[in-house]
């Protein structure tokens, strides 16, 4: 009787151990949840200090420079006199234009008073046209006289004097180069590959170091050139210094710009490690989706799912099309598994629930 009890107890223990043995026989698989990532890349760039605007200023009319009271490296205020032409020729031009206008007005008055009965209507119309042309000439002469003085259009740093006093210059010929320093900007040149990865309008988070081992100053994105340079295939990106900065900063000075670049839409993309991919004989990329068993989240069945991918950074890939966010897939060793395989969740040496 005692032997029978021992035999029954042994059989019951064996039956209870069968599920555990069956689970141990399942191949372990490291799993991950499909979820978007910002796919942020950190880069360090050489930067160059620039002004908000840089303008080559010139006179609207030609003449001889009579005054040029500015010096290179000097800061000027809006409205300050930068240069002045000899006004003699312009004053004579005004008097000449005034005389021509007076003559045209007298002629128009004379033919108008005579009337169309004596003077042909065409002569009256010609006189009116001549008066209008003379008025335009007078207005131009007055404007040229007023523009004989070159005035600073904004608070500016004069970086170069492009002409000298007593020089005779043509209309539109640059005289001085002025920088609008109301906002100090920093330019970098970003390679084309970053825009292929993050789209046409990536999002930049940037800081600048102006001296070796100096403090970091926050930057705000300003603009991006939409055309790459012929040499190097780079795009110019401009940032603005938004806090108080040292007074010694001048255009052309160097800076180190630390950036974090991501997609502007903020939605992110799904990043897949190379080990999460398997390929069919025809080259189609697939991932293996894990479906947990009812009542046991640690075991389940794998189902192959086609995906569309593109290269990412390093050995990772960006998933363009594939399983919905929240799905659980095999993260490592997918090439060694097949559609329909049963696996158990691999938790490693720590209780991380099988997450990578």
Describe the structure using short key phrases.
24 strands, conserved putative lor/sdh protein from methanococcus maripaludis s2 fold, 38% strand, alpha+beta, 356 residues, 4 helices, elongated, five-stranded mixed sheet, disordered C terminus, Elongation Factor Tu (Ef-tu), domain 3, Helix Hairpins
Tertiary shape: elongated
CATH architecture heading of the domain at 41-53 and 181-262: Beta Barrel
Task: Indicate the percent of residues in helices.
Answer: 10-25%
- Any low-confidence stretches, pLDDT <50, length ≥5? 17-23, 350-356
The rounded Rg comes to 40 Å
Order of helices and strands: HEEEEEEEHHEEEEEHEEEEEEEEEEEE
GO cellular component, one term: efflux pump complex
Signal peptide: 1-22
Keywords: Signal
Organism: Paracoccus homiensis
Draw up the topology in text.
Layout: H1 2-25, E1 27-29, E2 31-33, E3 41-50, E4 53-58, E5 63-67, E6 74-76, E7 81-85, H2 88-114, H3 121-146, E8 149-151, E9 156-161, E10 168-169, E11 174-180, E12 185-191, H4 192-198, E13 203-209, E14 216-224, E15 234-241, E16 254-262, E17 270-273, E18 278-279, E19 285-293, E20 296-306, E21 308-311, E22 316-321, E23 328-330, E24 342-345
Parallel strand pairs: 1-24
Antiparallel strand pairs: 2-23, 3-12, 3-16, 4-11, 5-7, 5-10, 6-9, 7-8, 9-11, 12-15, 13-14, 13-16, 14-15, 17-22, 18-19, 19-20, 20-24, 21-22
Helix pairs in contact: 2-3
Family: Belongs to the membrane fusion protein (MFP) (TC 8.A.1) family.
Protein name: RND family efflux transporter, MFP subunit
GO molecular function: efflux transmembrane transporter activity
């Amino acid at each position: 009787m005692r032997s029978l009890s021992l035999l029954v107890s042994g059989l019951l223990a064996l039956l209870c151990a069968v599920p555990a043995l069956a689970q141990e026989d399942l191949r372990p698989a490291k799993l991950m949840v499909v979820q978007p990532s910002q796919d942020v890349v950190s880069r360090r760039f050489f930067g160059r200090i620039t002004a908000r605007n840089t303008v080559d200023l010139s006179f609207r009319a030609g003449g001889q420079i009579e005054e040029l009271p500015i010096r290179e490296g000097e800061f000027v205020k809006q409205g300050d006199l930068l240069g002045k032409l000899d006004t003699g020729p312009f004053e004579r031009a005004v008097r000449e234009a005034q005389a021509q206008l007076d003559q045209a007005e007298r002629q128009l008055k004379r033919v108008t008073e005579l009337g169309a009965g004596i003077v042909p209507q065409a002569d009256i119309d010609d006189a009116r046209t001549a008066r209008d042309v003379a008025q335009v000439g007078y207005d131009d002469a007055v404007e040229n006289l007023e523009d004989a003085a070159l005035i600073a259009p904004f608070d500016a740093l004069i970086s170069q004097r492009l002409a000298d006093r007593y020089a005779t210059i043509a209309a539109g010929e640059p005289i001085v180069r002025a920088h609008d320093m109301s906002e100090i900007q920093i330019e970098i040149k970003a390679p084309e590959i970053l825009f292929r990865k993050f789209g046409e309008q990536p999002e930049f988070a940037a800081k600048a170091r102006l001296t070796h081992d100096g403090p970091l100053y926050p930057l705000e994105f300003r603009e991006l050139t939409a055309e790459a340079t012929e040499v190097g295939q780079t795009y110019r990106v401009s940032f603005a210094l938004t806090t108080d900065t040292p007074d010694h900063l001048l255009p052309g000075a160097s800076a180190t710009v630390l950036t974090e670049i991501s997609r502007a839409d903020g939605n992110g993309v799904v990043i897949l490690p190379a080990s999460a991919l398997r390929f069919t004989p025809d080259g189609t990329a697939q991932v293996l989706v894990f479906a947990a068993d009812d009542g046991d989240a640690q075991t389940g069945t794998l189902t192959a799912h086609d995906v569309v991918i593109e290269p990412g950074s390093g050995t990772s890939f960006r998933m363009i099309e594939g399983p919905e966010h929240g799905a659980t897939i095999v993260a490592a060793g997918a090439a060694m598994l097949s559609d329909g395989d049963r696996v158990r969740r691999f938790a490693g040496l720590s209780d991380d629930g099988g997450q990578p």
